[in-house]
Amino acid sequence: MPALELDSLTKTFDETRAADRVSLSVPRGSWTGLVGPNGAGKTTSLSMAVGLLRPDSGTARVLGVDVWAEPVEAKRRLGVLPDGLSLPERLTGGELLDYWGRLRGLDRDLTRDRSEEMLRILELDRAERNGTLIAEYSTGMRKKIGLATALLHTPEVLVLDEPYEAVDPVSARVLTAILRRYTDGGGTVIISSHVMALVERITDRVAIIADGRVLADGPLDLVRGDDPALEDTFVRLVGAREVGEGDLAWLGF
Amino acid sequence: MVGVLIRLESTLGRHGVSGTRGGTLALLVGGAALTWYVTVVASSAEVRSQLLMLLGAVWAGAWILGPTITNGVGVLRPQYFTLLPLERSQVGTGLWATAFVGVGPALTLVAMASTARHAWLSEPATLSLGLLGMLLSVVFMVSLSRLVFRALGAAMHTRVGMEIASVQWGLIVAGLFFGWAAIGPALSAAGDLAERGFPAPVVTVLAALPTSWPIAAVDAAASGAWGAAFGLLGAFTLLTAATVLATVRLLAPRVNARGRGRRSRPLGRRRSTRRLPLLPDGPLGAVVGKELRSWWRDPWRALELRSALYAGLFIGLFGLMADRPWITLSAGVFTALVMAMGGSNMYGHDGSALWLTVVGQGRDTVRADVRGRQIAIALLIVPGTLLLGLVSVLVSGEPGASPYVLAGLLVVLGVGNGLSVLLSVVAATPGVEPHLRVDANDTGDTRVQVWTSLIAIPPLSSPTIVVALLAGGWWAVPVALVNGAAGAWLLGRLAHRRLAARLPETFARIRYGGRVAERSLPRSGGDPLDLLERTALSTNEDTRPTGS
Ligand SMILES: Nc1ncnc2c1ncn2[C@@H]1O[C@H](COP(=O)(O)OP(=O)(O)O)[C@@H](O)[C@H]1O
Ligand SMILES: [Mg+2]
User: Fold this and answer.
1) Number of neighbours of residue B386 by Cβ within 10 angstroms
2) CATH code of A222's domain
3) Does A200 lie at the interface with B, CB-CB under 8 angstroms?
4) Which residue, A110, A134, A154, sits at the end of a domain?
5) Does A202 reside within a domain?
6) What's the predicted TM-score (pTM) here?
7) Cα separation of B302 and B491, whole Å?
8) Beta strand extents in B418-512 (DSSP E only)
9) Does B387 or A14 have the greater pLDDT score?
10) Does A14 have pLDDT greater than 50?
11) How far apart are CA B3 and CA A70, in angstroms?
12) On the CB side of A126, how many CA atoms lie within 13 Å of its CA?
């Protein structure tokens, strides 16, 4: 049974078909990258997969549990990091984790130990000591505290939307190390990103999405085939405008 | 540069919903017509001058309060321009100039033209003074309007500023309601005004207002005192210039939209422990703790809470000044009522942070979210309203009224509390996302919630009202207790059931806006809550810029 299964998810906004029968199967213990340009439908698909956006048709299953039929059961197994959403802005990072632990029904001491450790590893502990509110966090810090909330209840499947966006290189390494540890322990990760070079470097499976449709999906090597880089695969699948010899001739000195 | 901004402003304006625009337009046309009518029927030049002064003050007042009340004005935000390679002051000047685009300033000019007419009728030689006064008045009012609006926004970044904004809001709200109580006597007096003018003390006060100076200048010139005339008009010119300069400065974008560094620790944050003592473990305790902290620390929430308290306080004071004990006695109930409206868009207020409730949905978490919010509001508002009620009984010297005050408080606190969460769920309307907020009214539009509260609270309190009228105050107290508790419990239950059933839909309302949310509702029919939600969708405006 796959850890996460997107089954023909479809969503239309006004005229735009943001997701068009998106199907994807993420095996247990794998780390999958969902790549595609801005507006490809990554956020829309992942939102439908985790119960944030009701699909027009299709459904998603977490370890066999239907997200839209048994939301409570499915959400217990899921850890989610959405992209660019608000948080309870007037809490500190530590207070947010405390709130989240209680809401998830975790034991008080367990929550405290885990959140302290996570704040330390994600280098948010100094902000915490200063009483910095989330409203005052930078974009990268918001990603990090979001990741901490996603991990706090040790979910079996992690769904992260653009987790590396605006995160500095040092923190990005920490983030990768955390996720590697998590998959080594049997956890399953799916991340979205529009940076193909990054996904190629860290994940072991990829799915390419453009215009709301999944164009390719599978182990990295198989999807890439003979192409030197994932980017080339993408261009081969989608087609891209090249800058020709005569174009932009005025761009010279 | 200015031209570009003006075009942008009218482009953005065109995308706004036209409901309020219609209402505002009607008010403006009516106001201009009334101004002309009143000054035409005035019996003498002296009475006309007095009426013009009064109307000038009313126009200025409308310009000061209008944008804050109607939510809609000032679509262009200074922060849109932070990244452009323009001098900050250039942007400020440009934004100031855009304030003069539209029917508002145009109709104000029409109304103020009655000053020029007054000059012509009094003494043709003063016409130029009258024309200058007319133009200056429009510049002054429109600039002052933007100045106050921005000052309220800038205020949201400091605690003292928030406090001042709360006092202003409290005054506005109390004034609006006290206005209704005062409207009867005012109307009966109005007939005499055009005939005989105002009593002397009123004239003295009126003449001292800056908006009256151009008219006073015309009057002085008409009676031959040209020196005084130039002095008055010169002073008004200086004042207008100062207002314009201050406005241009305040309209220049600030470097950091997210708020200044904070030196003190946030309220409710203890060094040793991260937990609020006494809160139970589990989802309910989690929500109560988060909510209490948000009410303490978020300036926008604190504004709702504190302006409700100030509104009650001012109602009490107005009642005392006007010697109307029943108005004074309603201070506490009034605060509870205003707070019921202030808490009626909590999910819109929290913006897309609702994703935590969606993703963290457990067996009991949605109920805990609604009940926790109710408990937090009750903890915050009950002590203040009880104190206001007690003090109002003491100072009004009506001890016999105390059971009525107590019954009123119990029932409105309970019913209002339940109605707040229910409307928060059903009529959730997004504002600017919390971490991007700047202005005092950047939280969502609550028009539907306010009207629904005003209409629904009396019938929901009817058991208490009936018993109080038929059997007297002391009988009403226990009834009010049951009435209030039942209201809070039942309405809260409706709220959490609705939220649980429509959790992703409520999130979609906030995250994706009205157009996407609309599709999840039946087009017609459905239960009363569906109807209410449709009404909120079509009436409340999304302040939030949409897009992914
Ligand atoms: N609220 C909305 N209204 C209309 N169209 C939307 C909305 N949100 C997203 N879209 C459209 O859906 C498509 C997919 O968007 P999204 O899932 O956010 O892409 P990605 O995350 O891959 O950048 C885009 O074409 C976008 O314009
Ligand atoms: Mg996205």
Assistant:
1) 17
2) 3.40.50.300
3) no
4) A154
5) yes
6) 0.78
7) 24
8) none
9) B387
10) yes
11) 56
12) 2
First-to-final CA distance of chain B: 29
* Cross-chain CB nearest to B353 (options A43, A88, A108): A88
Fill in the amino acid letter for B413: L
Cα distance between residue A4 and residue A75, in whole Å: 12
Phi, psi of B442 (to 5 degrees): -75, -10
Residue A235 lies in a domain: yes
Q: Is the CB of A209 under 6 A from ligand 1?
A: no
Q: Looking at ligand 1, which atom is closest to the CA of residue A11?
A: 12
Per-residue pLDDT reduced to its tens digit, B205-259: 777 788 888 888 888 888 888 888 889 889 999 999 988 888 887 777 654 434 4
Q: Domain for residue A248, yes or no?
A: no
Q: Coil, helix or strand for B279? A: coil
Q: HEC profile for B53-93?
A: HHHHHHHHHHHHHHHHHHCCCCCCCHHHHCCCCCCHHHHHH
Quote the domain boundaries for residue A107.
86-154
- Inspect the interface and report whether the beta carbons of A86 and B433 lie closer than 8 Å: yes
Burial class for B109, CB neighbours closer than 10 Å (0-12, 13-18, 19+): middle
Instruction: Please answer whether residues B446 and B341 qualify as being in contact, where contact means their C-beta atoms are separated by less than 8 angstroms.
Output: yes
Q: What is the ipTM for the molecules in this complex? A: 0.94
CA distance B96 to chain A (A): 29
Cα–Cα distance, B449 to B539 (Å, whole number): 10
DSSP state of B353: G
Take residue B215 and report the two structure tokens written for it. Answer: 């008219």
Strand order in the sheet with A65-66: A16-26, A4-13, A57-62, A65-66
Contact B286 A90 (CB under 8 A): no
Tokens of A21: 């029968």
Rounded CA-CA distance B80/B342 in Å is: 29
Answer for the pair A151, A122: CB distance below 8 angstroms, yes or no. no
Which residue has tokens 């987790």? Answer: A163
- How many whole angstroms separate alpha carbon B315 and alpha carbon B10? 39
Q: Which ligand is nearest to the CA of A85?
A: 2
Domains: count for chain A: 2
| DSSP secondary structure, B26-41, as one string | HHHHHHHHHHHHHHHH
Quote the pLDDT of residue B6.
55
Q: CA nearest B346: which of B490, B492, B457, B486?
A: B492
Cα(A221) to ligand 2 centroid in Å equals: 25
> Do A46 and A164 sit in the same domain of this protein?
yes
Mutate to test the pocket of ligand 1, among A11, A12, A14, A44 (most ligand atoms within 8 A of CB): A44
The dihedral sign for the CA sequence B418, B421, B425, B428: positive
DSSP state of B212: G
Whole-number Å distance, alpha carbon A161 to ligand 1 midpoint, is: 13
How does pLDDT run across A130-169, given as a tens digit for each residue? 889 999 898 899 999 999 999 999 999 999 999 998 888 8
Question: How close does chain A come to B164, measured CA to CA in Å?
Answer: 21
| Residue A129 is assigned to a structural domain of this protein | yes
Task: Name the residue of A43, A209, A211, A214 whose CB sits within 8 Å of the most ligand 1 atoms, as the mutation to test its pocket.
Answer: A43
The structure tokens 């948000």 sit at B294
Q: How far apart are the first and last CA of chain A?
A: 60
Domain map (residue ranges) of chain B:
2-12+19-158+192-251, 283-539
**Residue from the list A76, A89, A102 with its beta carbon closest to the beta carbon of B285:** A102
Which candidate, B38, B7, B15, B175, places its Cα nearest to that of B102?
A: B7
Q: Tell me how far apart the alpha carbons of residues B52 and B47 are, in angstroms, rounded to a whole number.
A: 9
pLDDT at site B484: 97
Chain B CB within 8 Å of residue A105 CB: yes
Nearest to B384 by CA among B325, B277, B311: B311
